[in-house]
Amino acid sequence: MATSKKVITRDEWEKKLNAVKLRKEDMNTLVMNFLVTEGFFLFPYGETAEIDLATITDRMAVKKAVQNGNVEDAIEKVNDLNPEILDTNPELFFHLQQQRLIELIRQGKTEEALEFAQEELAPRGEENQAFLQELEKTVALLVFEDASNCPVKDLLDISHRLKTASEVNAAILTSQSHEKDPKLPSLLKMLIWAQNQLDEKAVYPHINDLSTGQLQNPSE
Questions:
Q1: What PROSITE patterns does the record point to (predicted)?
Q2: I want to staple 74 with a disulfide (CB 3.0 to 4.6 A). Which of 65, 110, 156, 198 is the partner?
Q3: DSSP string, 35-96
Q4: What pLDDT is stored for residue 46 in this prediction?
Q5: In terms of domains, do 68 and 1 share one?
């Protein structure tokens, strides 16, 4: 079937890409923005970024605590940074308390988990229907002897810890008047959007795997 789309060869496309000049300083700043915002580690990546190393260290400590399942420690650290973060964000505080409940269930502390759910989470569920639904999902983990058979077993995945840790990290950044989202993921989303738009007009090599950035012909 004939196509009216313009066909761009790999050589032509690579020449167009190579013609775009990117400054190393801009790339360093982009990488630094991602690392600082996500709080992965401290790394002297040039002198273009003004960074408060103390605040990064504090955020890293909070994220690590949540990622390791030490939610009580994380809450203490957040309150040490700024008590208003949790006082003014009931959804975040609920999610941290929910994660505490999940950790109790993970450890097999059934009675303690039920008591914690009743005393700490149930009152919040009575005030917020969304919280109540999340609480009911979490408590459902206790119904199944084998959590792998539970419809909400994903709550026990490490990915749920990471999600909660990211939520806390974003709240801390907001409280410090910093950007809560790194620029790099937004640029990658823009790349995908641009390719989808261009697909309607041309046939050209794609970047299908964002982790490698390798060009692939449409047929690959």
A1: CTLH
A2: 65
A3: HHHHT-------SSS---HHHHHHHHHHHHHHHTT-HHHHHHHHHHH-THHHHT-HHHHHHH
A4: 46
A5: no
Token pair in block for residue 37: 């915002």
* Angle formed at CA 72 by CA 70 and CA 74, multiple of 5 degrees: 70
Query: Do 80 and 101 contact (CB within 8 A), yes or no?
Result: no
170 shares a domain with 134? yes
What residues make up the domain containing 200? 1-40+185-220
Please name every residue paired with 216 in a beta bridge, in sequence order, or none if there are none: 206
49 has pLDDT over 50: no
Which candidate, 158, 161, 182, places its Cα nearest to that of 170? Answer: 182
- Calpha distance 32→55 (Å, rounded): 15
Q: What is the pLDDT of residue 218?
A: 67
Supply the pTM of this predicted model. 0.65
Distance of alpha carbon 107 from its chain centroid, rounded? Answer: 25
Residue 70 shares a structural domain with residue 148: yes
Q: In this structure, are 89 and 120 located in the same domain?
A: yes
Torsion of CA 49, 55, 59, 61, to 10 degrees: 120
Q: Residue 207: what are its φ and ψ, rounded to 5°?
A: -105, 100
Q: 3-state SS string over 188-217?
A: HHHHHHHHHHHHCCEECCEECCCCCCCEEC
Q: Is 172 exposed, middle or buried (0-12, 13-18, 19+ CB in 10 A)?
A: buried
Residue 125 maps to a domain: yes
